[in-house]
Amino acid sequence: MILVLLSVVWPLIPAALVALCTVAATRRVRTVAAVTALALLPSVLYLAVYAPGSRTVSTVVTGAVLVGGAVGYGLFLRGLRERAEQARTEAALRAEHARQREREAIAHEMHDTLAHRLSLLSVHAGALQVNPGAPTEQVQQAAGVIRDSAHQALEELQQLLGVLRAPPAGASRSSAPQPVLADLTRLVEESRTAGTAIDLVFDCAPADTAAAPPAMGRTAYRIVQEALTNARKHAPGQPVRLVVRGAPGSGLTIEVTNPVTPGSTSPVPGSGLGLVGLTERAALAGGELRHEQRPDGGGTTHRLLARLPWPAA
Question: What is the pLDDT of residue 175?
Fold first, then answer.
């Protein structure tokens, strides 16, 4: 009733239009339709009371245009507000997905790095436990590996925890240097020093190795690292054969084989999770990873085969 009176009293028409625009912008569609019909009612009554004529039609059309313009502008403002809210919601979802991907990446990184170090600690601590009368030189060597592995594990843990901490305002988040393809030889030498016999075939040109894509090199490093860790856990004392072949344009192939010790158990919890993560990592890199156990001369051999794309230079 108030809106009807406001639409009739000419000096208050601007206020009525503002009120109508506000209703259209903030209320439900059903309410907007009812108020719009109520605002058009005076025009209908005016047309019914007065005889049709140019002045009558002009007045009715003017009123309808004003009401339609107010409602249309209110609906336009509603659309802008809804789009802004939708954009904020989508931005929040994208930020949450980004945080989730970052948490998953950190979890993979913690497993890949710390499991390798902790497996070295476990193997050498177990060797000292089962052979307390070992020569002094072997005890010192094992103690040195334990000390170095513990120190490196603590450093890597601190680096990963540093990534989890929020950086100061305006500062960029830094990360630890990531391994590349050329670091595979260092990883193999580290495992050899820890007592694992590794037959390495590295069939990649030095120039290609140095220029290999960082993402591919990091994936290859993590695959070999996890394979060597599993060999120490499930086949302690058994030799490992590692073959790495590839070139730009033809891809990179990684094959790791080692005998499986009958009845071996893993001294490190989390068995099997690393291979699942590596399969996902290889798939994200555009490659594939398979692993199997197969009979071999009366025993069992574990074989891991990974293929990664290596784009042409």
Answer: 53
